[in-house]
Each structure stands twice: as C-alpha cells, then as structure tokens.
Design a protein that fits this description.
The complex is a heterodimer of chains A (174) and B (168).
Chain A lengths: L1 H8 L16 E3 L4 E2 L2 H10 L26 H17 L2 E12 L8 E13 L6 E11 L5 E12 L1 H4 L1 H4 L6
Antiparallel strand pairs in A: 1-4, 2-4, 3-6, 4-5, 5-6
Chain B lengths: L25 E3 L4 E2 L2 H10 L5 H4 L1 H6 L9 H16 L6 E9 L8 E13 L6 E11 L5 E12 L11
Chain lengths: 174, 168
C-alpha cells in the first residue's frame, strides 16, 4: 500500500495537499488561455449546446453583447477551473460541487482568461479521514482586467500524511 | 429552373419563450448523451485540466475507479447542453448557477439524461422584452442514479421577440 501510494504521489506535485491550504490564501494561476475555435465553437457543440449564438458568426453580427460568437458561459467557467486545477485539485480525490456561479461580462473568440483563487475554508471530511474539504473562490479575468466569471468550488483533497508520508520527511520525489 | 423564394420558407423555430414557463412545469430533455473517453480527453485537454484522475486510467484505477473519472465540468456542460433547447435557446444571457452538486463519479461509456423543473419566474421592469426564469435540473446515469443537480437562472425572451437570436 505504501509503495503504491508513493508511486501515485510521484505523478503529482507537492504543495497542494489538504494540509497546504489555509483560509485567506490567494493565488494567481501561472498559465492563462485564449478561448477560440476549439475551446468555444467546437466544445460547445460537443456538449450538445444547441444555442447558435455560440457557434453562428453571422447571426451575432451587430449583437448588443459585442460582435461575433458569444462564448458559452460554462466554457469560460470550465477554462477558469481548468487553469486553477493543477494548483487546487492535482491531489484531489473528487470534485464535490460548485456554487454562486456568475457570468459578469460577455466573452468572445480571441479573449484570454487568467484565473485567480482565494481559499475560503478548509474543513475535515465527515466520512473519510484520508482527505479534507477545501472551498475555493475562483475568478476569471479577460485581457482587459475585467472579471468575466466567478464561482465557489468545493473539492475533496488528499491529506499528505496519508497519501504522501515520505514527503513529510523531505525525502520524497522532487 | 429558377430557385424557389427562400425568404418565404418558414423557419422551423426551436425553443420555448418566457410565457411557456410556469412554476412546477417539468421537462424531460431530449437526446441523452453517452460520454466517451474521447469526449473526456478532448474536453479536459482543451480546458487545461490535465489532472491524472481524468487522463491517466492507471492512476484512476489505483483510486478505486474502473476507468478515468470524466471531468465533472464536462458532465456539467453536457447536462446543461441537453437542456438548452427546452429552456434557454430562445435567447438571453445565462446569469448564473447555484448549488451544483456532483453526486457520483461518471466514467467512459456512461449515458446521461437530464430533466428540469421550473422553480421561479419573474419579469424585469428594466428589460421589458425578457423574463427571468430559474430551473432545477437533475441528471441521471443509465442505472437511474442521480449524478448531478443544480439550479440555473437565465433571462428568457418573451413571445414579442421573434428572431431566432431572441433577446441577444
């Protein structure tokens, strides 16, 4: 068991186990991403969203929300979560939920999203002792510095003391 | 032979309008969707979510799963997508979501279906062409188990707004 857990721990980073998160902690995530044909036009249709405002350029000419295809809000939201995922959920056991999702500004093809996180709360899990629950607040901002979406996200995160005990002693893999 | 007058062809309109929603109305959404490993790999990589629980099957199996765990954001996007024609295709901004709960992991090959209930309708004094509707949506897998539920609120075009673009 310990050998298997060491092998698993070698696949993911350190610094993002349950013990590493504290309420009030803030992060600007290092990588931003541009939303374009693959991220919005293709994925919106892949996930069965039939609203052509997201994938018909002609029908959106002259739209009061800005020229051209409007990015599906959950694409912006999914990208924001994705950009945070290495820092917030690389050592997660499960995503538990989301709350208070708000889409504050339209997003268009070519816009670039940067993700920001604040840790709201860390709590012990009620049904397992090898992981704890972290509640994050995330914001996605566009290239003009405007917040385009925000949400809270609840993640079940592994405890280092159970899943990567070698690292506690400083002799784990780098 | 001359082409017909295409402008005279009636549009086969899709979607419901604000007046079609009353509190308590329910919708069993169309189609369903079997989510595959390919869906998950494309979605997760496109969204910069390279988590091994979603993309490394051996890693996921070592955590007790039979295969990779489908990215929950893919599950959420797909369930919402299945609900769009019934609920929000007539146009209007997607305002937000509350209490999104992922109840069970979803694995490649699982088939999701979605259903919604209208829980609130109201009009907006400042935006006479639209109303505001809130729905509760549930998604179940092929065994009938609840995998996801949430509440969603949108602006929805009224009947007086006739274009396919609706209130947009």
């Amino acid at each position: 068991m310990t050998d298997q857990r060491s092998a698993l721990a070698a696949l993911t980073g350190d610094g993002n186990y349950f013990e590493d998160f504290t309420a009030g902690q803030r992060m600007c995530h290092a990588r931003a991403a541009t939303i374009d044909e693959v991220e919005n036009n293709f994925i919106t249709k892949q996930v069965m969203n039939t609203a052509q405002a997201h994938w018909n350029e002609e029908i959106m000419r002259g739209s009061p929300f800005g020229e051209g295809r409007l990015v599906f809000g959950l694409i912006t939201g999914s990208m924001t979560v994705g950009l945070t995922s290495q820092d917030t959920a690389e050592n997660a056991l499960a995503e538990l939920g989301l709350d208070k999702i708000r889409f504050r500004k339209p997003v268009h093809h070519g816009d670039t999203i940067t993700a920001y996180t604040e840790v709201l709360e860390t709590t012990e899990s009620t049904d397992r002792d090898d992981a704890g629950v972290v509640r994050f607040k995330h914001w996605g901002r566009n290239q003009h510095g405007e917040v385009v979406c925000e949400m809270e996200r609840i993640v079940l995160v592994k405890k280092r003391e159970v899943w990567a005990p070698a690292r506690r002693d400083g002799d784990g893999p780098a | 032979m001359a082409d017909p007058d295409f402008e005279s062809f009636p549009v086969a309109l899709k979607g419901n309008r604000y007046e079609d929603f009353a509190v308590g109305d329910t919708f069993d959404h169309h189609w369903g969707r079997t989510l595959t490993d390919g869906d998950n790999a494309i979605f997760s990589t496109a969204m910069c979510n390279w988590n091994p629980m979603h993309l490394n099957a051996e890693y996921a199996r070592a955590h007790g799963h039979r295969d990779v765990v489908l990215n929950p954001m893919l599950v959420l996007c797909t369930v919402l997508g299945l609900s769009v024609e019934d609920l929000s295709e007539s146009g209007g901004p997607f305002l937000g979501m509350e209490d999104v709960s992922f109840h069970l992991p979803v694995h490649p090959g699982d088939t999701l279906t979605a259903a919604s209930e209208v829980i609130e309708t109201r009009t907006s004094e400042s935006r006479p062409k639209v109303g505001i509707v809130t729905w509760h949506t549930e998604a179940r897998n092929q065994d009938g188990d609840l995998v996801l539920d949430y509440r969603r609120t949108n602006l929805v075009a009224k009947r007086s707004v006739s274009s396919q673009r609706g209130a947009l």
